[in-house]
Structure formats: C-alpha cells, structure tokens
Amino acid sequence: MLREIYEQPDALRRTLLEEGNIEKVAKILSEKEYRFYLFGCGSSHYICLCGKSALETYAEVDAYVTPSSEFYEYPPPQAKSQAAALGVSRSGETTETVRAISKANQLGAFTVSITNTRESSMARNSKLAITVNAGEEKSVIMTKTFTTQVYALQLLALHYAQNRGKDVGKQLSQARKMPELAQETLTLGEKMRELALNCGSQKFIFLGGGSSYGASLEGSLKLKETSYIHSEAYHPLEFRHGPIAVVDEKTLVICLVPKRPSKEYVELIKEIKEKGANVLAVTSGANVPANQTLTTPGVDEALSPTIQIIPLQLFAYHYCVGNGLNPDAPRHLKKVVKI
C-alpha cells in the first residue's frame, strides 16, 4: 500500500499520456446535450462524486451519482437516449458495475467505462472506454487507481467543457501539472506519520463539502478498511444536524477546507474544538482555528480531490501500521468483488 501511494505521481503521468483518448471521448460526448449518470461501488462511487463536481463546475451539465447497485436495481427513467452513463471500476469486472453498464445499454444511454484494465468486461460492453494506465495495483486497498480515475474524470470534464465553448484553458493547464503537485504533496508523509502515531483518538470524523465531499468519504473509508475503526464523513454544515453529538476529547475531526471557506465553516471548526475534539485542517491556504493545519499545494477547487486524498491515504496507512495491523491483508476484503 505504501509503495503504491508513493507511485501516484508516476501513475498520474501515465494517465496524462491517455489524454488524447480522453479528449476523443469528450469530443464525441460533446456532440449532444447529455444528462450524465455516474456509478461505481465503494471507492469508485466516491470517484464518481469527484467527477460529478468537475462536470458540473467546468461543463455546467446535469450530473447524477448513484451506487452501481442502485442504478441497475432502480434505474432512473431519464437514463435513455439523451443520457451518458459513466461506469467506474478499478478492475472493470465488479459485478454491480458490469450490470449497471448493461442496464444503461438496455435503456439506450451512451455508455463509457473508466477502468485500469484495458481488456475488461466493462470496456467491452461500453460504447467508449477510458483506461487510466495506473499500472498494476497489488494492494486490495485502492490508492493510485483512486487518484488516477478521479484525474481522468477531471480531464474528461475539462475537455468536454472546452468542446462546448467554455474557457477552461487555465484549469486545463493546471490539471496537466497534477503529477508534480502530487509529488509535492507526498513530502507531507512524515507529518502524517507523526500525526497518526500520536493522535490517540478513538473516533474519526471527516468533513468536506462540494468537490471535497468524495475525498472526505474516501479518507474515512481508508481508515475503516485498514484499521477496522469506526469513521464517518459528512458535509460540514450537515454535521451540526445530529452527528455533532458524538464529539468529545477522543475525537479527531479532519476538515478538508477550501482556500476561501465560508464563515459558517470557520464557526463550525471553533465549535468542534470547544467540545474537546482535536481538529486537523487540510487546506491549500485557508486560515482556520484548527488545532493543526496541513498545507497542500494550491489547485483549482474542482481539481483538489486528487491532491487532498494523498495525505488521508498516508494517515490511514501509518495509523494502521502503528496499531500493529497489516494494510496489505485487510480482513473481509477482496480486490475484485464479484457476486
């Protein structure tokens, strides 16, 4: 797991080499007014949430995210000829996502698969396919395929927007620097190790809104998968509506904070601290009253999940190992989930 976390800059570079195919897919999609449906399972579902944010922000299209099982069991009636269905899976063999692609085909949607496996069931069953080319991921715990598939969806959204006449040249230029930004983010590894080994927390909450919501869910999932500890993720202000009751001195709250957070988010951080929790802010430059602040490289907000998730992956790894567990042998989990 740790090796593959540190392979992410190279994996992102290989995904960038696929930009020509991604641009081609975007061009074909941009020829119609599509409603977008994105689906995946587990981490892939969270990748879809990050992709939804990029599509809505840059292309200004309607984008909807559901788990794959929901899509094929309760297919949206509107997912027909004017719909684009994007399925995300590391292997391209996940049963629910393969079924969801088949259901989308039956409905008449234009299907696109995003996988790390060029010759997969999903790729063969989709009208178009994007392969992120992250390289083999041996770990059951998804790391480099998460960042590369998020990245592929961001590039797709930017090229789609450009083909639709949107001015996204600055953001596209920034996106092409993502491998270097990921390399810079990995220098936070020692800080994350120290935090993980010394946090002493027994409860974990992740907060992230907008483009950061998917990354907050993924950060929480990494802890569950590696350390079998309870962790939850919320939209920041939704946390006030009930879940804040769990906060005490044994709680670590990790906040993904945009560069310009709302006044309400800042007040929430103060409130959580007053209730005894330890607050870690992950931000590219916001000044918030957290106990500790981790500064990541600055990037356009809709591109930020690719960077924000890296320190959360490192935290989960070091917390797991610090508690005497093996992240490469997670209990109850397998690499490809087939029903």
Task: Characterize the structure shown.
It contains 14 helices and ten strands. The longest helix has 20 residues, at 144-163. The chain folds into two domains: 2-176, Rossmann fold (3-Layer(aba) Sandwich), CATH 3.40.50; 184-322, Glucose-6-phosphate isomerase like protein, domain 1 (Rossmann fold, 3-Layer(aba) Sandwich). It starts with a helix and ends in a 17-residue tail after the last helix. Helices cover 46% and strands 16% of the residues. The protein has 339 residues and is of the alpha/beta class.
Q: Please indicate the count of domains.
A: 2
| Helix content, binned percent | 40-55%
Element pattern in H and E:
HHHEHEHEHEHEHHHHEHEEHEEH
Give the percentage of residues in beta strands.
Answer: 15-25%
Described by its quaternary structure, the protein is single chain
Mean of residue pLDDT values: 95
Shape: globular
Query: Residue ranges: pLDDT <50 for 5 or more in a row?
Result: none
Structural class assignment: alpha/beta
- Our count of helices gives 14
The largest pleated sheet is described as:
5 strands, parallel
Radius of gyration: 19 Å
Q: Any idea of the CATH class of the largest domain? A: Alpha Beta
Give the spatial strand order of the biggest sheet. 2-1-3-4-5
What's the count of strands?
10
Gross CATH architecture of the largest domain: 3-Layer(aba) Sandwich
Write the layout of secondary structure elements.
Layout lengths: L1 H5 L1 H9 L2 H11 L5 E6 L2 H17 L3 E5 H6 L9 E6 L6 H13 L2 E6 L5 H5 L2 E4 L12 H20 L5 H7 L2 H8 L3 H10 L4 E5 L5 H15 L3 E4 L16 E7 L5 H12 L3 E6 L8 E4 L9 H18 L17
Parallel strand pairs: 1-2, 1-3, 3-4, 4-5, 6-7, 6-8, 8-9, 9-10
